[in-house]
Amino acid sequence: MLGVTDLPTYLAGLVLIILLPGPNSLYVLSVAARRGVRTGYTAAAGVWCGDTVLMTLSAAGVASLLQANALLFGIVKYAGAGYLTWLAFGMLRAAVAMWRTRHERAAGADADAAGGEPAERPFRRALVISLLNPKAILFFIAFFVQFVDPGYAYPALSFVVLGAFAQAASFLYLTALIFSGTRLAAAFRRRKRLSAGATSAAGALFLGFAVKLSLSSV
């Protein structure tokens, strides 16, 4: 099928990979819980655009360049880890503000302001989270290449087909997260302590992603 081999195995592996939690999906869930469905899809669009760029770069051979150049890989790796760390501390600061104001009637509004939402720009932030992830580039090339027929005359078309399936799976998964996030938002508005705890957990997870990325190797 257009140079794609063993499609059922690819789809099975893709589902498992999509379901693994990562900074992209966690950020989309967080945005949807705080700001609703429309803004959640705005963040998701940033993820999809970022993934499209990474798939294109992988098909163009950039992943091989990162694998061969340890210095370049290190620069991209630490830039991504630094950005995730910055996001993590922003979430933790917002959580501290929520804990301090949880007994006030206006706690919800104060917490939103503490999160910097008016200037948050979810699309751009999700896009940057996606792009500053060299391991994702390496993943795409390492995973995709296993299902491309080396004898097919148009390998770029095979990458397009594989990428289309990956984006479709991502769309379904992020849509589920977005609508789950709106349900969580209702609970957060009623329970400020729950909101502060969830924000703290999200910040801790982002910090964990940063550490994991900084310790990764080619």
Automatic annotation (TrEMBL):
Signal peptide: none
Record field: transmembrane: 12-33, 45-66, 78-96, 126-148, 154-182, 194-215
Membrane topology annotation: Multi-pass membrane protein
Keyword Transmembrane helix assigned: yes
Main location: membrane
Domain of life of the native organism: Bacteria
InterPro entries: LeuE-type
UniProt cross-references to Pfam families, sorted A to Z: LysE
Annotated keywords: Cell membrane, Membrane, Transmembrane, Transmembrane helix
Subcellular location as annotated: Cell membrane
Keyword GTP-binding listed: no
Recorded family membership: Belongs to the Rht family.
Entry protein name: Leucine efflux protein LeuE
Organism: Streptomyces alfalfae
